[in-house]
Amino acid sequence: MRQSHIVTRRTMLGQSAAAATLAVAPPVTASERVEAESGTNRLWYRKPAERWTEALPVGNGRIGAMVFGGIDRERLQLNEDTFWSGGPYDPVNPEARAALPDVRRLIVAGHLAEAQALANAKLMAKPLQQMSYQPVGDLLINLPTISADSATDYERALDLDSALAVTRFTAGTVRYERQVFACPVHQVLAVRLTASKPGAVDCDVSLDSPQSAVLGVDGDMLTLAGRNPAEQGIAGALRFVARAQVLREGGTLEPRAAGVGVRDADAVTILIAMATSYRRFDDTSGDPDAITRAQIAAAAARGFAGIFAAGVADHRRLYRSVRLDLGRTALADRPTDERIRTSEDSYDPALATLYFNYGRYLLIASSRAGSQPANLQGIWNDQVRPPWGSKYTININTEMNYWPAEPTALAECTAPLIAFVRDLAEQGAHTAREMYGARGWVAHHNTDLWRATAPIDGASWGLWPTGGAWLCTHLWDRWDYGRDRDYLASVYPLMRGAAQFFVDVLQRDPASGHLVTNPSISPENEHHKGVSICAGPAMDMQILRDLFDQVAQAAAILDIDRAFAAELTALRAGLAPDRIGGQGQLQEWQEDWDGEAPEPHHRHVSHLYALYPSHQIDPDDTPALAAAARRSLELRGDRATGWATAWRINLWARLRQGEHAYEILRFLLGPARTYPNLLDAHPPFQIDGNFGGTAAIAEMLVQSKGNQILLLPALPSAWPSGAISGLRVRGACSVDLSWRDGRLDAATIVSILAGPRIVRLGDRTATVRLRPNRPVRLTEASFR
Ligand code: FUC
Fold first, then answer.
1. Would you identify the CATH topology of the domain 103-131+341-711?
2. Distance between CA atoms of residues 285 and 55, nearest Å
3. Could you tell me which CATH class the domain 3-83+133-320 is placed in?
4. Which residue's CA lies nearest to atom 8 of ligand 1?
5. What digits encode the pLDDT tens for the residues 705-724?
6. For a disulfide at 431, which of 1, 388, 453, 521, Cβ 3.0-4.6 Å?
7. What is the rounded distance in angstroms from the CA atom of residue 300 to the CA atom of residue 303?
8. pLDDT digits (tens, 9 = 90+) for 612-628
9. In the structure, which protein residues have their CB atom closer than 6 angstroms to any atom of ligand 1?
């Protein structure tokens, strides 16, 4: 991608080191809380991180750091979520539209290998790959008067409830503490170094970067300014600035060749701001210099205590909305890496709680209003060539990132996803027109900061037109969980545009008479060696059934667009239905190719979309299809890549097989799929497994479909007693739940809306009539 990553450095030493000592309130150590909430709200370790997959993530949605917790040398690996390679570009292949009818004809004629070859030659994006997410660099803090070898009582931790990373150790007679916090209010990272003795803090602070950048030092301020790299022939269009101000209390400031030194201080606060010139996918005119300058100035006026107080309140507003208890054993007191390492051979139910809490923490830290959506690595990436570009893969991974958002009460964190779909609809309208001659908009299997929507990588990965449609189901879910009519009106045009595209491109299969997508693939599976291209894969039909239903329902709710809704309803009836194949399995393709497909244990289970996240297949309403989905799951096997393992847990939960779901969850939480820092191992690191696993734990405890609420639908015997509060279900409703010895203790349901709810507990049912904001309490005795 890039030839060199040489840092061009020009160090401008500032005037004097006479910066005024900042008055900062007494340190907010949050130590008591960190001590108290062990086991389910805290990751902790007895050694500094050596590898990135041991470091601890902090983030405010937009900027973040991986904290290594070194003794004599701290490293904060820095990210800013708009720092990607390249610039605005149009990847649509100008030959695509003319070649499309031939590709379609070859598919209909059954000449699939030729169709795929032609698609590869004429339909794919130019360039064939997209831009990648980039690291900004590292903030390095050297502690020259501390010797790592002599330090004792070392501990580092990430407290999920306060979003604070803390490193502590004793050197000589002094206890040192270092706190790192990413502030969502003040938009800075704040680091605080304290010691138990006055005048004991010495440090040298510098900024390093793998990017082409220049470091300047002016007094107590370090400024790294540079440009983003080109990739695939797309020139870098972004400027970036990372700025760090080193504020001391007491002591002296000492200029350094490439940094700032402080000696004999009582405490030091380092404020870090980062920004790029990205404003929108087609506008890179932002001023990162002015932005970061203003952010640092505003934050410095507050000091660490003020920044932390504002930020932690904002964090807790979201984080504390759900509380989970799955029971605990003494293992919950062990260091986190040890718990993961031994989890498959031990009984540590609190580890699942920690994983769930961490998933919610990670979404709050990587997706907040105004930020980019969480990408394949959330916002945390140290590589200039990250795996899969650390992009947005929208044939499962981006959607999975947001699976826990609605049920675990983090609806606010979907704001970036909704804004992202708005962008994709704009870019995707161009792709629909130029590539397909169609109205509406399309996005294929992958996208990037520039919202590229043409098919990439090769037909067997990229030639899948249903990515945008799948994302639109998340727009609908936001409505269904929140029931805000103005919101629905605001996203309706996006959903409508996604459906409009398929009105124009659906093809009638001459053999069956059904409407199908053509060309397409079933993500990313080959039905025959080297061949993926096909018409009407099951997943496309399933997604379109949801999309058409949801657009028609939205039109009815908003009382608009009647004719279009009727058109969609008619088209929906013509879509190819799900089928059961020769092995009793749910067919992945129109033809029963599943048994011949070269990878029987393929990670993707695209055709099971209908079971989860969709509700089209359900053990009650479609028992035969549910049995076929189960057969497909059995044939695919339980163990797959991180995200694919997490998907399987959700699917088994929907089949209400709690023991099976739990067995797969144990594998997900074990060392093969979870790194010491509790981040998901595809491998390599990919964050979707964390989010899919979090959603799965919720799905085992509560499910909702229409106006039905299922309590404890997939409770495993390993969680005999427990409680959860604050979970959200469809219809703007919350559920609190506790159970004992495998039996419901009590459930409380409350909604802002009136209406009947069918609450289910195993085979038994209770019908409740909710009144707005009036909680209804149910016990075992309420069910018949
Ligand atoms: C899809 C998956 C891979 C990986 C990539 C980012 O291509 O099939 O396993 O997760 O996305």
1. Glycosyltransferase (1.50.10)
2. 34
3. mainly beta
4. 524
5. 999 999 999 999 999 999 99
6. 453
7. 5
8. 999 999 999 999 999 99
9. 376, 388, 393, 397, 524, 603-604, 641, 643, 682, 686
